[in-house]
């Protein structure tokens, strides 16, 4: 079991391509005009909000980041759940949020998690956030879990749902066949997305620079940039984009390591 996880700002930059692809697919497949949509706290659900169509929607959330995005569009009706600010999760939690959810009916909830341990269930490290997640689930008709595949096999302190509480899982194609089989045994629909490979060397350069440019802040962030470039290079090589794969390696050597 993992004891802790990084703060929201750090998590928002991890597995960014996967989260963006998941968020885009979730919004495309499930959002309809007039929906009452629950948005859980989390960096992946934030990408869903950034891809919402420009149609009348009611958004219920306790996420500060999601609320800030929703508030920019007057076609959306925003219900912000109150409570005490949880800095590491960037959300409001507590009895105020839970009491408000008892009075609401959400037809589609986009749920996030820090860990999914088959067949046990979902967990996170923040106890107050876990309580709000439970209340969101109880108030929702359809539960759509959105998470990148790196979270499969992880478990944290606060377990907030069993797998059979979920209707649909949207994740990236890094999910293993074994995990897919166990999850599907719970009658959960699994939708996988593939991350987009950069189409050109300038696009690749921009992506790698986005990460390695943060290396000045700390050695820890520097190695995250190197890991991102390595994964991106591997995907390029696997799909025959050898020139882009080699360029990723050059970025690691010249920017992250030297």
Helix-strand pattern? HHEHEHEEEHEEEHEEEHEHHH
Name the CATH architecture of the largest domain.
3-Layer(aba) Sandwich
The helix/strand class is: alpha/beta
Into how many domains do the coordinates divide? Answer: 2
CATH topology value of the largest domain? Rossmann fold
Sheet with the most strands: spatial strand order: 3-2-1-6-9-11-12
**Shape, principal axes of CA atoms:** globular
Low-confidence stretches are 214-218
Question: According to CATH, what is the class of the largest domain?
Answer: Alpha Beta
The fraction of residues in strands falls at 15-25%
Q: Rg to the nearest angstrom? A: 19 Å
Number of helices: 10
Give the biggest beta sheet: 7 strands, parallel
Instruction: Count the beta strands.
Output: 12
The whole-number mean of residue pLDDT values reads 85
The assembly state of the depicted protein chains is single chain
Helical amount:
40-55%
Separation, N- and C-terminal Cα atoms? 35 Å
């Amino acid at each position: 079991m993992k004891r802790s996880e990084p703060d929201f700002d750090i998590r928002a930059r991890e597995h960014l391509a996967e989260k963006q692809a998941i968020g885009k697919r979730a919004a495309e497949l499930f959002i309809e005009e007039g929906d009452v949509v629950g948005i859980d706290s989390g960096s992946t659900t934030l990408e869903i909000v950034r891809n919402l169509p420009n149609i009348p929607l009611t958004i219920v959330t306790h996420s500060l980041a999601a609320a800030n995005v929703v508030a920019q569009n007057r076609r959306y009706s925003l219900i912000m759940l109150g409570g005490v600010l949880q800095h590491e999760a960037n959300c409001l939690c507590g009895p105020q949020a839970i009491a408000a959810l008892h009075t609401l009916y959400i037809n589609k909830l986009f749920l996030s998690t820090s860990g999914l341990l088959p067949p046990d269930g979902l967990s996170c490290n923040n106890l107050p956030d876990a309580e709000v997640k439970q209340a969101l689930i109880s108030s929702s008709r359809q539960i759509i879990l959105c998470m990148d595949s790196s979270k499969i096999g992880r478990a944290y302190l606060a377990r907030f749902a069993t797998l059979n509480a979920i209707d649909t899982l949207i994740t990236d194609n890094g999910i293993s066949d074994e995990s897919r089989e166990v999850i599907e045994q719970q009658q959960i629909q699994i939708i996988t997305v593939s991350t987009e490979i950069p189409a050109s060397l300038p696009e690749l350069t921009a992506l790698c620079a986005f990460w390695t440019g943060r290396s000045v802040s700390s050695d820890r962030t520097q190695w995250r940039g190197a890991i991102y470039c390595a994964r991106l290079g591997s995907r390029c090589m696997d799909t025959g984009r050898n020139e882009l794969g080699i360029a990723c390696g050059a970025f690691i050597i010249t920017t992250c390591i030297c």
